[in-house]
Design brief:
Chain lengths: ~100, ~240
């Protein structure tokens, strides 16, 4: 099972390097105008891609349950914002749909 | 002397604020960590190996994938290459965050970078203003602790959580992503359009191209962010 330790070390390295490299490359540097704007847009495009299509398969046994849970979170955020309440409402809704 | 103590207290407050910002990640990481620990046990790896996966690799999707590939009898090199491809998206996230750091991370930069995940990146990105090192480390510690605690509990206790509850808790992180972007999308319809477009590109590329897993999200982020440069003028991006 020495093999598993080697696998873990290898996986750790190839995961850590892309996490670290941008920070070291950008250290003490200000990005150019276009790069700066591009980097500022990443959170919005990344969040879109983190939600879709993942949420469609969040509850594989019944995809609709996860989707409705997400929709509830979205509705609460639109109406009153917050983060903890939307999360727990999504969990509760999904759970209710899954068990009934 | 007075100045020094003042400095220290702001530092601790930064940690606290980061840790508080990480609270929404806890439920998701605990429950998915739990599932990982359980799957690790059923795959037949030891508790120590499971803990090392979560504490040293610390990247959910690729850890699950590694277990699946190990069970199928894949070789280590293939798993490592797949891991690299799946986790390369962090490169874009770290790049984006590096421009938002207050002080470049200082000597804690290696530690700060280690904690970048989809979730910590998302929470930090939507924090107002520049990010301090203390904030990032506080956020990282809470997330890291949840993921590892989940793994250990899942391995030791095994499948004690009912399947439907486990599945429901898996929705927590999606709900968090939604909660983070909705207020901004509500204010700026261009942001909403950009996020939806990126989700669509990700969905279509994942479904209709033979690209390896994890690259549809990179294509989506790159192409739609570049597209965004044409949609937003300079002052609009600054005001976001």
């Amino acid at each position: 099972m020495n093999n598993v330790f080697l696998l873990i070390v290898g996986m750790a390295l190839v995961t850590y390097i892309p996490r670290l490299l941008p920070f070291t490359l950008m250290k003490n540097r200000t990005p150019s105008k276009y790069l700066g704007r591009f980097l500022k847009l990443i959170p919005y495009t990344a969040l879109g891609a983190l939600i879709l299509p993942g949420i469609l398969t969040a509850t594989p046994s019944m995809p609709l349950a996860g989707l409705v849970g997400g929709a509830i979170a979205f509705a609460i955020c639109l109406a009153r914002g917050g983060i903890i309440l939307p999360i727990f409402a999504a969990i509760a809704t999904t759970y209710a749909i899954l068990i009934f | 002397m007075e100045k020094k103590s003042q400095h220290e207290s702001t530092d601790i407050q930064d940690y606290k604020r980061g840790a508080q910002a990480g609270v929404p990640i806890i439920v998701g990481y605990l429950s998915i960590g739990l599932a990982f620990g359980l799957l690790a046990k059923t795959t037949g790896i030891t508790l120590l190996e499971s803990i090392l996966f979560s504490s040293v690799v610390y990247a959910g999707a690729s850890q699950f994938m590694a277990l699946t590939l190990m069970a199928m009898g894949s070789g280590a090199l293939g798993i490592i290459i797949t891991t690299f491809l799946v986790n390369f998206r962090h490169f874009l996230m770290s790049a984006s965050l590096s421009a938002k750091l207050k002080d470049g991370g200082g000597r804690f930069l290696p530690l700060l970078a280690f904690g970048i995940t989809d979730e910590t990146f998302s929470v930090a990105s939507f924090e107002k203003g520049r990010l301090s090192t203390g904030y990032m480390l506080g956020l990282n510690i809470v997330s890291y602790a949840s993921w590892n605690a989940g793994t250990i509990i899942g391995y030791i206790l095994g499948g004690t959580l009912p399947a439907s509850l486990q599945a429901s808790m898996g929705v927590a992180l999606y709900a968090m992503f939604i909660a983070l972007i909705t207020p901004v999308a509500k204010k700026s319809h261009k942001v909403a359009a950009l996020a939806i477009l990126s989700g669509l590109v990700n969905t279509l590329v994942a479904k209709y191209t033979p690209l390896p897993q994890g690259w549809s999200i990179i294509i989506a982020i790159l192409s739609v962010s570049i597209f965004g440069l044409f949609v937003f003028d300079e002052t609009e991006v600054e005001s976001l």
